[in-house]
Write a structure and sequence with these properties.
There is one protein chain. It is built from twelve helices and 19 strands. By secondary structure, it is α/β, with parallel strands linked by helices. β4, α2 and β5 (about 75) form a beta-alpha-beta unit. The two termini are about 30 Å apart.
Length: about 375
């Protein structure tokens, strides 16, 4: 199997989008739009490397957008998209990757199915492969005064998407032969040089963002909402204070546990991990590990939030119910909410803390310990 590299082109200005920030760096679900595109390719099992092509003036924006992703150093783009792609290809010439995918950074949701279909067709010895969609609307050709001059037949007309796939050597040779031709995509460059380009089924959700309406459409289609629940309980032991919700509460007892036994943060951690279908706190932080002894529980919740953010997800709401007779939670509620919001990297209005008793029933009613229930609501890219 030959080496496959994805070039993600993000050197344009996006003038049709408007605003001061280039469109590939505007926020989509709390993350720069470009990060969504890069993440898809960085995590795809059949792609060995990802090379972004950016405008040099945007380097700081890029570094923020790509933070933590396993991708290569960016290549500086040129004056046109064609120039930018060629610079990316030149940067790879010594490696001779075999197969190349070229993708527009302004398409944040290239589905894995589209990527696989393009790569499968390349394995079938095609020099170039593009994903396509049918054209559902009637096409009209107009003049400079916006008067219709012709109805264009739709027979055989399709819309081309990215990623487009190519064998590396024919593509870089075609780029050199077409220098200065101002062709609109890489398949056109290959066609100009006499190569056949085959097609595979595209994806209607693989939207290219050119204006705010596109951004709204892709936002609606990008995420799914999930919920997860968590529960934890710890018994009281000797001591003079306890940790609840990340703050130290004066009390005549402590909670017993391998870590600091913060039942609130433990339940919150399990709720977030549950929404991710990513195991539980005991799997990621086994109590048998000496490193976790007396550990502050904020590290567990921060870990769960980082797992969420790695999936381009965000925490919408965290609802916590503390179950105990003592200590009284109401006087500490605001401080707990503020601390949990800080740990979770969300605003205060996304964290709820409530308290209840069991009317003297069970271990909490007998004053033997504290329990907590948690519900996390998240948005995530499937």
């Amino acid at each position: 199997m030959s080496f496959c590299t994805a070039i993600v082109v993000a050197a344009g200005r996006g003038t049709r989008f408007g605003g001061q920030t280039p469109k590939q760096y505007v926020k989509l679900g709390g993350f720069p739009l470009l990060r969504h595109s890069l993440t898809v390719f960085a995590k795809h099992p059949r792609i060995d490397a990802v090379i972004p092509v950016i405008r040099p003036d945007d380097r700081d924006l890029f570094l923020h957008a790509a933070s933590g992703l396993d991708i290569q150093e960016p290549v500086s783009g040129g004056a046109s998209r064609q120039d930018s792609v060629y610079r990316g290809l030149e940067a790879l010439e010594k490696e001779d990757p075999g197969k190349i995918l070229i993708h527009d950074g302004a398409r944040p949701k290239p589905g894995s199915g589209v990527i696989d279909r393009v790569l499968d067709a390349l394995d079938g010895a095609a020099a170039g492969v593009i994903p396509i969609l049918p054209v559902p609307d009637t096409l009209k050709r107009i003049d400079g005064a916006n008067i219709v001059r012709e109805t264009v037949a739709r027979d055989g007309v399709v819309r081309a998407q990215t990623p487009q796939g190519f064998l590396f050597k024919p593509l870089i040779a075609a780029h050199r032969a077409c220098a200065g031709k101002s062709l609109t995509d890489d398949s056109a460059i290959l066609e100009y040089c006499g190569h056949e380009v085959t097609t595979v089924k595209g994806d209607p959700g693989n939207i290219k963002v050119t204006d705010n309406a596109d951004l709204e459409a892709v936002t609606e289609s990008l995420f799914e909402t999930r919920t997860g629940s968590g529960f934890d309980a710890h018994r009281f032991g000797d001591g003079n204070g306890l940790m609840l919700g990340g703050i130290n509460i004066p009390f005549d007892k402590s909670l017993v546990g391998h870590s600091d036994a913060d039942v609130v943060l433990h339940a919150a951690t399990d709720a977030v991990l549950g929404a991710l279908a990513d195991g539980d706190i005991g799997i990621h932080f086994p109590p048998s590990e000496p490193a976790h002894k007396d550990a502050p529980s904020d590290i567990f919740l921060r870990f769960a939030i980082s797992r969420l953010q790695q999936r381009l997800g965000r925490l919408l709401h965290l609802d916590l119910t503390v179950i105990c007779e003592q200590p009284k939670i109401s006087v500490h509620r605001d401080a707990m909410r503020a601390r949990i919001a800080e740990i979770s990297d969300v605003s205060l209005d996304r964290v709820g803390v409530k308290a209840t008793t069991t009317e003297g029933l069970g271990f909490t009613g007998r004053g033997e310990g504290i329990a907590c229930q948690a519900v996390a609501t998240i948005q995530i890219v499937p």
